[in-house]
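re: ur question from earlier - yeah i can do the single chain one, its not a big deal. heres the input i used so u can compare w yours
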Amino acid sequence: MELQCLIRAMPHPALTHAPTPERQPGLDPDRGLDFDDEPFDPTIDAVVLERWEYLFAVPAAVTMLGLVGLTFVDVLGRYFFGHPVRGATELVELSMVVLVFLGLPLVTRHGEHLALDFLDKVVSVRTSQLIAAAMGLLMGGCLFWLAWLMVLKGLDIGRNGDATMVLSIALGPFVLFIAFAAAVDGVVNIALAARTLRALRPGGPPAHFRGSSPRS
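and the output i got, formated as tokens:
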């Protein structure tokens, strides 16, 4: 009891900047394959993954900032000057398409999708991770199929010259962007599944992907 009190009374490492012991990567009996707390692995693979995230995170942040600014100006103009922003609804709708599909690969990369963990309570950790890997491969295939359908749809829309009613913004590029983002998300799903399977293999290398384990 006294030892527990002393441990609880110890200052948090984040406040004292004291080095924390490294946890051996691998299967955690309580959390499964979860490497959020692992030290940064300075390998080429890890560096590339960190860099490609910025290609989606930065445009997503800029899009979100633009949405906030557009909404503020539109509401201000509508209620105080009687002149809302022309085509604001179209801009918001198209911006939401860009924002959602920019964030899709990032959400997959960090395992932040909504998930049910009822199977985790009745199967072993290893079986749970195998299921997660199988789902990743399945989702990757579905996303590649979706990307192909969106490519066909985008090319068809481009040939027809479909555009928005007010601002006449071409819709084809946005549909092709959905195809691109879906394909990237498919790659991320398959990469995560492959890394999970390699980590489960006896003597396999430790994974440093986040999102390898299902979350509730």
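Residues 1-49, 207-216 have pLDDT under 50 and may be disordered. not sure if urs matches, ping me
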